[in-house]
Amino acid sequence: MVPSIISFLVSSFILFNTKNLGAVALTSPQDISALKAFKASVKPSSIQPWSCLASWDFTTDPCAYPRRTHFTCGITCSPDSTRVTQLTLDPAGYSGQLTPLISLLTSLTILDLVDNNFYGPIPSSISSLINLQTLTLSSNSFSGAVPNSITNLKSLESLDFSHNYLSGYLPKTMNSMSSLRRLDLSYNNLTGPLPKLPYNLLELALKANSLSGSLSKSSFDMLTRLEVVELSENLFTGTLEPWFFLLPALQQVDLANNSLTRVEISKPSNANSDLVAVDLGFNKIEGNTPLHFADYPLLSSLSLRYNRLRGTIPLEYSRKKSLRRLFLDGNFLIGKPPPAFLAADTSVSGSLGDNCLQACPGSFQLCMPSQKPSSVCKQAYGGKPRS
After folding, report:
1. Residue 231 has pLDDT above 70, yes or no
2. Three-class SS of residue 325?
3. How many CB atoms lie within 10 A of CB 40?
4. CB-side exposure of 6: number of CA atoms within 13 Å?
5. C-beta separation of 145 from 167 below 8 A
6. Which of 23, 63, 79, 259 has the fewest CB atoms inside 10 Å of its own CB, making it the most exposed?
7. By the 8 A CB rule, do 240 and 216 touch?
8. Residue 22: enclosing H or E segment and its boundaries?
9. Sequential DSSP letters for 132-189
10. Residue 10 φ then ψ, to 5°
C-alpha cells in the first residue's frame, strides 16, 4: 500500500513540474523583445520552412524546456533559462538588416550569422553586447564603416567581418580591444593605414582590401604573441623594415600583391625564430635577394616572385635544410643557380624561372619557365649583365 502511494506522489510531482516548466515564462522580457525584433527584420520570403528562424514561434517561451517544436535551433540559453547567451544562425540564406535592438541581448557571448544575406550597416548599438566573446558576420552583404563603437567590446576574442562590403578606415582605437586574439576583415573595401593593433592578437587577416601606407612599427607595437599576418592584395608601399620579421611569435606572413619597394632583414636574435612561411611575391621590391632569410631556422617556404630583384641567388639558400619551397621567378637574377638546387636529389620545389640566370636548363623543373630574353636582361642592367 505504502509503495503505491509513494509512486503516485512521485509521478504527480514530476507531471506537475514538467507542466509548469513549459508554462512558466523564463526568458528575460528584453531578450524576447530582441529576438522578436531580430526575426521581424528578416524578410519572410527568405525564411525557409526547414530553417532555424522558421521554428521561432513566440507563443512558446524561447528558453523554456523542453523546446522540441519551437526554437529548435539558433539560440542557446543560460543554465537558469533566463537569458540568451548564444545566437548562432544556420546558413539558410536569410536576408534582411541586423536590427539595432540586438543590443538588448546583453548576455550574448556568441553572435554568429555567417553565410547569409544580411545587408546594410552594422549597428553601432552592437557595442552594448559587453559579454560578447565571438562576433562572426562573415560572408554576408554588410556595408558602411566598421563602427567605432566596436572597440568597446573588451571581452571580444574573435572578430570576423570578412567577405562583406565594408568601407572606410579602421577604428583608430582598435588597440583598446585587449582580449582580441583573432581579427579577420578580409575581402572588404577598407581603406587608409593600419591603426595601432590590439596587443594580444594571434592572427591578423586583412587580405583583399585597399589599405595603404607603410607598415609602421607603431601599429605592431607590443604584439609579442602575433603568429599570422595576412595582408596580401592591398596597397601597402615603402620599406618592410627589420623589426617586422623580429616579432617574437611570428610564424606565417603573406604580403603578396602590394606595392612594397624594399625589404630589410636582420638575423633573428640568438638564431631563434618560429617563422615558417613568407610570401612577398608580386610587389615592387628592388635590390638583392635578402640574404638573412637563410638565418631563420624553421623557414620552409619563401616566395619573392615577380619583384625587381637583381644580383645572384645567395648560396646560403641552398644550404638551408629546412627550405622546401622557393619561388624567385619573375625577377632579374643573374649568375648560376647554386649547384645544390640543380641536383637530382634536391628537396626544394618552386621556380627560378623568368630571370636572367645562366646554366639553368629549361628542362629542369626548378628552372621553369624559361629565362628572360638576353635583350631584356641587358636593358635591365644597362648593358650586359655581369655574372
Report:
1. yes
2. strand
3. 11
4. 3
5. yes
6. 79
7. no
8. helix 2-23
9. --EEE--SSEEEEPPPGGGGG-TT--EEE--SSEEEEPPPTTGGG-TT--EEE--SSE
10. -65, -45
Return the C-alpha cell found at 305. 616572385
pLDDT value for 182: 98
Contact predicate 339/363, CB 8 Å: no
Q: Which three cell numbers stand for residue 174?
A: 582598435
Distances (CA, A) of 295 to 304, 310, 346: 16, 20, 20
The residue-averaged pLDDT of 66-84 equals 89
Give the total residue count for the chain: 387
- The pTM assigned to this predicted structure is 0.91
How much is the average pLDDT of 137-166?
98
Neighbour count for residue 276 (Cβ, 10 Å): 16
With contact defined as beta carbons under 8 Å apart, do 286 and 261 qualify? yes
- Spatial separation of the C-alpha atoms in residues 18 and 339, rounded to whole Å: 79
Q: How distant, in Å, are the alpha carbons of 114, 186, 189 from that of 87?
A: 11, 23, 27
Percent of the chain exceeding pLDDT 70 equals 93
Topology (CATH level 3) of domain 91-352: 3.80.10
Q: Does a cis peptide bond (omega within 30 degrees of 0) precede residue 66?
A: yes
Give the Å distances, CA to CA, from 66 to 62, 105, 284: 10, 21, 62
Backbone torsions φ then ψ of 294, nearest 5 degrees: -65, -15
Asked if 122 contacts 97 with a C-beta cutoff of 8 angstroms, the reply is no
Looking at residue 258, what DSSP letter applies? S
**For position 294, what pLDDT does the model report?**
96
295 residue type, one letter: D
Long-range contacts of residues 380-383, Cβ cutoff 8 Å, at least 24 apart: 380/310, 380/332, 380/356, 381/310, 381/332, 381/334, 381/356
